[in-house]
Amino acid sequence: MATDATPKFQNRDFRPVQQPPDFHPEITMVAHDGLQFWQFMVAGSIAGCVEHMAMFPVDTIKTRMQVLGSCPIKSASVSHALRSILKTEGPFGLYRGIGAMGLGAGPAHAVYFSVYEMFKKSLSGGNPNNSAAHAISGVFATVASDAVFTPMDMVKQRLQLSSSPYKGVFDCVTRVLREEGFRAFYASYRTTVLMNAPFTAVHFSTYEAAKRGLMEVSPESADDNRVVVHATAGAAAGAVAALLTTPLDVVKTQLQCQGICGCDRFSSGSIGDVLQTIVKKDGYRGLMRGWIPRMMFHAPAAAICWSTYEACKSIFHEINANSDNDGGT
Asked: pTM for the whole thing?
């Protein structure tokens, strides 16, 4: 039977070995164990709302640049798109549809992060370096959250369009139900999942790897710079994932805005048909329309989201620890 033999073999003649200056001890990633399922949901909901509300104007510019027909701003320049919106609609134009975002982002991110944490715990086996587990957990999370978020995302994008025929969220929902049916809310769901599955897989695996790498750079100050670590790792993950999945995001925008203020309507809703239409009208560069504002959105958005989420988890962790201490006294 193994026992702790350290006290029996201590020798005062032994001296500690001087470590080289570039030596760094192994970092042990401490998980937020003990959080309840509802706490993950609340933390995720707060993080999602803060992220999307803060970055909504950039999302509006991206949507305007991605749609075809009479809706889009013809120039691919972000500055031109911004000036055009401010000139014709004023600052309010950058926030059209923010109500729909508020209604969808909270519940969707609550599902997103709670499902991710659940599968991450189940699949990783306690190994913080298991990138495959992080990627697979992210895919499960996005499939579940997209089912919640897609209807409000469609409403949001239709309200963001120039000369949108809808007065607000309620008007858009009721008219879409009456004129196009319930299926219209999920016209882009398949494309959204096909886009967000690889996006999330890249995002989560990059985030976990970047976070660990940053903590290894300066382990002695890892706790003091925890917010900076989460924000930096999140920004890197968001930028990489956004760039790689831009073509599918363009397709998703086309499907969600089809038939509105001159945008093309697609009879089949096939991803292939939409891709062919985009390439025919705008060439292959059309598949990357809006990639700059998309990266401008997702890099800081991910930084905001992850740092907020981890901060909320830390607060809940402290609350739970204090509750346990009070219960034990």
From this structure: 0.70
Task: Supply 305's token pair.
Answer: 């989201």
Burial of 320 per CB tally in 10 Å (0-12, 13-18, 19+)? middle
Residue 183, Cβ density class (10 Å: 0-12 exposed, 13-18 middle, ≥19 buried): exposed
Nearest of 308, 128, 301 to residue 226 by alpha carbon? 308
Task: Report the candidate in 267, 268, 274, 237 with the shortest Cα–Cα distance to residue 252.
Answer: 274
What band does 14 get if pLDDT is binned at 50, 70 and 90? very low
pLDDT, one tens digit per residue, over 110-167 is 999 999 888 988 888 778 778 888 888 888 999 999 999 999 999 998 998 877 889 8
CA-closest candidate to residue 297, choices 101, 71, 74, 91 = 101
